[in-house]
Amino acid sequence: MRFAVHPLFLLFGVWYAFSGRLFLFLVSTLVALMHECGHAFAAARVGYRLDKIVLMPYGALISGDIEGIGLKDEIKVTLAGPLVNAATAVLFVALWWFFPETYAYTDVAAYASAAIALVNLIPAYPLDGGRILYCAAAAKKGEKFARRLARGAGLVFAAAMLALFVYGCICAAVNLTVLFFAAFLFAGARGGKGCEYLRIRADYAREMKKGMEVRRIAVREDCTFKRLFSLLERGKYAEFIVYDAEGEYLGELSEEEFCALAENAGIYEPIGEYLAFK
Prior knowledge:
By secondary structure, the chain is of the alpha/beta class. It has 10 helices and 6 strands; from the N terminus they run βααββααααααβαββα. Helix 9 links the parallel strand 4 and strand 5.
């Protein structure tokens, strides 16, 4: 897993430290990382890889190469994050039922888990609710319409949060939390880097026109399709050199050939069972 930090994340942390809530910030960051790991594990279950986490104010974004994933599977991957947080919150509540004395030590993590689970269901990019809205709309109206709808919803919610911040400044108290959240939604609605899952695709015609790096990978015939998918990288053309269990050379597969075989194979099946040159 690769990690990156958005500058606003650092600014957000400094603000929490000066306001005396650094522990809440650190716990929320840990809960957000659990959330993104839920996405990563769910993606791995269907043979794809999410491997880069960017720490953002009010959460994190995860991306990876999952080209070809179906809309239903993408919804499952998206829901995995909130479900992890919801399960964590429920487990803490169960812990309080049997061991009430643990409440004082776990209440922050429990409430943070529940909050992140609920907030992420808001239908706005880059939140999970926005991804679910996108997939549902794409299934009915196509991806172009879905992209406009999801980003439009993100802008509406960002504007609502900004209006709430202005209202608070005039009628109540300054709440920078709302302002940061509005900025987070606005960046996602604009389609900022890392706001959408990246995907591998087998059609590299445009990239090949400019020239692509070829990545040759040696594998054994008992290597599973799931493992081979995890070895693919965006922007690099893969060629698999296949050997048997004794190390004898069997043949080679281009990325297109591998993807064609994967259409009719289970992700946990070995590549050797589908090789025509055996």
